[in-house]
Amino acid sequence: MKIGLLGCGTVGSGVVEIIEKLKGSLEIQRILVKSPEDCKDARYTCNYADLVNDPEIDIIVEVMGGLHPAREYILEALTKGKHVVSANKAVIAANFKEFVETAKAHHCYFLIEASTGGGIPWIKNLQRYARIDDIFEITGIFNGTTNYILDQMHKSGADFDAVLKEAQKLGYAEYDPSADIDGIDVQNKAIISAGIAHNTYVYKEEVPVFGIRDLTCTDIDYFHRKKKVCKLLAVIRCLNDELAVYVEPTLLNENSLEANVPDNFNICSLSGVTIGDLKFYGQGAGKLPTANAVVQDLLDIASDEAKDYEIVLDKTLKVNNENETHAYYVHTDKACETLQEISRAYESNADGVFYETGKLSVAKMHELSKQLRQQGYKLFFAGIRE
Ligand SMILES: NC(=O)C1=CN([C@@H]2O[C@H](COP(=O)(O)OP(=O)(O)OC[C@H]3O[C@@H](n4cnc5c(N)ncnc54)[C@H](OP(=O)(O)O)[C@@H]3O)[C@@H](O)[C@H]2O)C=CC1
Ligand SMILES: N[C@@H](CC=O)C(=O)O
Fold it and tell me: Where in the numbering of this chain does the Homoserine dehydrogenase catalytic domain appear (predicted)?
């Protein structure tokens, strides 16, 4: 099968490397790059038309990132009858329904294994379990960059900015790493996972998200004292045909499985009625693990196994985060009466005030944090898993 590759950065170069080693039926026919200086041989071009109009190319692999022109390129490829494999969760989450419907209308495959969980075989396994079971919970660590940062901060007291730079060097972080540290990347992956598990399209505005940007070493010291570890989690819970979907830092007991996920690793968990709990663990970011997931999709298309993994988003489910409740840790730079009123404990020092609230709904806590930020508070919060 002949492949047109869009983007040859971290993941794209990994795809080239794995396909060249495989020496199988997959062949990179053309590679789209931005600048003529990046054209290393005759396969390289700066003109998308050279790929999408090439009748020999069967599959377009989109690993450029970003929303535009990725959206337009994917739609054009599908419309012209080319299968598409993409690792770009941002463009997928924003246009999921349109991509899936366009692929169906033009009898093409649209495969996205690398978009969520990096090298972990999450998407296809989620599809497998969803075809038998009601998946009532999905949770886990879905971002390698933030897990790397949190792990280093917990283990060696490393400084946030220094570890972020390291994650960028290692090829884990997004082009704009605020997508990682503000939880947007996990929000995209939650939208994709909810779609796969429940055949529904969840809109970005429906998924409250809070990241780790304002986490400090003082917070980490507090968590150590309480024998807790902070991880950035996504949660998708399905109850009575309603979905709770949210992304927030969470304090886990230090001996729990998730608390001990190191480096750039992810853990993606699902709970189904007949299968019970399943956990998928592996590298959630990085050149070769992610490229491996892309090449798995290519092999599934080549062998036609892809026909078992058609994505369908034909249901409408209400998203409601009002009934999802737990206690929260909140650190503010100055005293806050509203937080004091709803807290079961609080303490203060020169670095600010540290509250542990009673049980609050996810909807309420995320709304409250927005209001407090608008009022000029600097704050970090994390759900507490008892
Ligand atoms: N890195 C990872 O661990 C993972 C990444 N992903 C996703 O995979 C995608 C690629 O990520 P990654 O490889 O890390 O990103 P990189 O920034 O390393 O690579 C992207 C490449 O695409 C090129 N590019 C961007 N826009 C265009 C364009 N319009 N035309 C031609 N080339 C273009 C960039 O060129 P230039 O450098 O000149 O801008 C760059 O070489 C992203 O969507 C990311 O979210 C998914 C899972 C894991
Ligand atoms: N930036 C992402 C890359 C993989 O999806 C991450 O760190 O997880």
Answer: 121-299
